[in-house]
Design brief:
Length: 141
């Protein structure tokens, strides 16, 4: 699924609102570090060429590259959390990979990796960890 051929985009996703359904395929994170599915309803902005943006409201756009029918949205920092009283910051990074079946439908996998930065990270038992969800997205209009 990963883009490695550097092929021209063979599908042009529709601009507009998309909806997603997803299910967890693996999760090594604890309840404290698990995040809900990141894609549910969002806007795709496709201008032309080999990239598009996923717009999710008040957060920065996620830029994705198209390679043939495949697409990849490289690591994107979802959020961070400073642990009070400790020199430790949790970081949630998102990576999305998928394949367009048509200009209105795609499927793939989103992976959220949780890591820790700081001197006290060795005190945490449940990081690093990862959550993987398979998804299907459909153009809604």
């Amino acid at each position: 699924m990963a883009c490695s051929r550097d092929e021209a985009a063979l599908v042009t996703p529709r601009d507009g609102t998309w909806t997603a359904s997803s299910e967890s395929t693996s999760n090594t994170c604890s309840a404290q570090t698990t995040v809900e599915a990141t894609l549910s309803m969002f806007f795709i902005d496709y201008d032309s060429g080999d990239s598009f943006q996923i717009e999710r409201g008040n957060t920065p756009d996620i830029v994705c590259e198209i390679d043939g029918y495949d697409f990849v949205c490289p690591d994107y920092e979802l959020t961070t959390f400073d642990i009070a009283g400790f020199a430790a910051t949790l970081v949630w990074d998102l990576r999305i990979e998928g394949t367009f079946d048509s200009e209105t439908r795609a499927s793939g996998e989103e992976r959220v990796e949780v890591s820790c930065v700081g001197e006290d990270c060795n005190l945490l038992d449940d990081v690093p960890c990862a959550q993987v969800r398979s998804f299907e997205i459909t153009f809604a209009g």
